[in-house]
Amino acid sequence: MSTPTTIEMYADLYCPYAYLAAYRLRKLREEYAGRVEVAHRSLALEYVNRETTPKRVLDMELPILMLEEPDIPWQPWAAPDSAWPVTMWPAFEAVKCAERQSLALADELDWRIRVAFFGESRCVSMRHVLIELAGEAGLDVERFTVDFDSGVAKQQVVAEARAGWETVKVDGSPTFVLPDGTQISNPGLPEVDLDERHGFRPRSIRPAPCAGDACLDVYRRMLDQSIASAGRATH
User: Fold this and answer.
1) Which residue range(s) make up the domain with 208?
2) Please, are residues 143 and 131 in contact by the beta-carbon 8 Å criterion?
3) Least crowded by CB within 10 Å, which of 96, 131, 132, 212?
4) Chain centroid to CA 3
5) Which residue positions in the chain have pLDDT lower than 50?
6) From CA 69, how far away is CA 51, in angstroms rounded?
7) How far apart are CA 199 and CA 116, in angstroms?
């Protein structure tokens, strides 16, 4: 049995564009099972922006962007503002702790963290919430909790953010890096331009280059390209 090709996904956990990308990848999981696996890289926007999770920006972007995938789990933030997760660093650490068990479990926890934030208004910077999500994702919760509480992944998370922005020099979140180093940013996604001077109201929208199932074909081409590039790298 051949080893699955690994594609790296550099993304922030609060990035709505990355949420759309992750959702589309999940639609293709069965189709590419055993052939491609995703390695999540901690591309913290907080690392470069020096800002908390930007609620005003997301409140403007999300109602527009989520129209791209009507069935994606999403709702406007329904919890008190005091429960808003101002940082994603603990959630990034949680994904890296899950990765110590397997890439597949890390992928599952990454997804559940995104759904908890975007679809369930849960404060994913809280320890108990992340432990609950680890259990929902099928991890060995006892092992996960020991790893998380020890801070074993803290340096790795910061190192991945630094590498993504300063060494790999990705364009932004999400960016996929193929085995041959090819970078693909924002595949099949629209772009919302916000006017910061006027309360982050939408100024313009660049439509996605695809619609409906055609967007899945964008991801199929990317995954097929990843498999092909891995094959060239072994010869």
Assistant:
1) 5-233
2) no
3) 212
4) 23
5) 235
6) 28
7) 26
Half-sphere exposure of residue 51: CA atoms within 13 angstroms, side-chain side: 8
CATH number at residue 41: 3.40.30.10
Contact 28, 219 (CB under 8 A): yes
pLDDT in tens, 93-118: 999 999 999 999 999 999 999 999 99
In whole angstroms, what is the distance from residue 119 CA to residue 181 CA? 33
**In the structure encoding, which two tokens stand for residue 123, read together?**
């404060």
**Can you tell me the distance from the alpha carbon of 58 to that of 76, in angstroms, rounded to the nearest whole number?**
9
pTM strictly above 0.90? yes
Q: Quick one: tokens of 70?
A: 């009507």
Q: Structural domain tally of the chain?
A: 1
14 close to 88: Cβ distance less than 8 angstroms: yes
Cβ-count burial of 81 within 10 angstroms (0-12 exposed, 13-18 middle, 19+ buried)?
Answer: exposed
